[in-house]
Inverse folding.
């Protein structure tokens, strides 16, 4: 199963980090559309943030695992672009979880 953890700051619901770990085991490696979809969304979001918001995310990745702490931006416009892309990632992952809930779970944590 793939577990996606979204960590938000309680005061303003800003996403401060996310982590994705595990394998969907929906199909054999190389044919697993659930793993491929989650990977495309998460890695694509990291790449899009760098390309469109100009923010270099400190991301760590290996097989079955991706994690990133989200640096707060002093520039309000960059911060809004960054958060919009992260919220978009959450919506896309929720869409996969709705269809493949036995293989993907999304959990949110609030920081005080």
């Amino acid at each position: 199963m793939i577990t996606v953890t979204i960590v938000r700051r309680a005061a303003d619901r800003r996403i401060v980090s996310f982590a994705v770990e595990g394998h969907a085991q929906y199909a054999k490696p190389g044919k697993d559309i659930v793993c491929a979809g989650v990977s495309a969304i998460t890695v694509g979001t990291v790449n899009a943030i760098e390309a469109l918001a100009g923010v270099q995310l400190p991301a760590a990745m290996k097989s079955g695992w991706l994690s990133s702490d989200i640096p707060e931006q002093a520039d309000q416009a960059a911060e809004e672009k960054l958060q919009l892309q992260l919220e978009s990632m959450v919506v896309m992952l929720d869409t996969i979880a709705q269809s493949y809930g036995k293989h993907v779970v999304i959990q949110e944590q609030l920081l005080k």
User: Anything to note?
Assistant: Residues 2-111 form a domain with the Alpha-Beta Plaits fold (CATH 3.30.70.1490). The longest strand covers residues 2-9. Residues 43 and 56 are 13 Å apart (CA to CA).
